[in-house]
Amino acid sequence: MARKKKPQEVSIIPTKRDSDVVTDLQVIIKDRVIGEIYQDEGERHYQVTNLKDQKGTALTIEDAVQSILADYNLHK
């Protein structure tokens, strides 16, 4: 019999490098960093890094978070 999925709290926290011109966020579940989102000034896409240091890009922060969560749930 399958176990029920328990909802988990996801936190998106800005890092020390986050400012008006640079976006730098960490995605955290249970005090564990599962991914990072970065966008420098003048860049159009967000750079996404997941648990296994695989890198990708996303157009929006929402897409970046969904990508990180999908990878986390797939390899959990």
Largest sheet: 5 strands, antiparallel
Low-confidence stretches: none
Provide a count of the helices.
1
Which geometry do the CA atoms define?
elongated
Helix share of residues?
10-25%
The run of helices and strands is EEEEEH
Distance from N terminus to C terminus (CA atoms, Å) equals 19 Å
Account of the protein in words:
- The protein has one helix and five strands.
- With 76 residues, the chain is of the alpha+beta class.
- A five-stranded antiparallel β-sheet has the order 1-2-3-4-5, covered by helices on one side.
- The longest helix is centred in the last third of the chain and has 15 residues, at 61-75.
- The model has no long low-confidence stretch (mean pLDDT 89).
Helices and strands in order:
Elements: E1 10-14, E2 23-29, E3 32-39, E4 46-50, E5 55-58, H1 61-75
Antiparallel strand pairs: 1-2, 2-3, 3-4, 4-5
Q: What is the gist of this entry?
A:
The protein is α+β, with helices and mostly antiparallel strands. The chain is built from one helix and five strands.
Supply database-style keywords.
single chain, alpha+beta, 5 strands, 20% helix, 38% strand
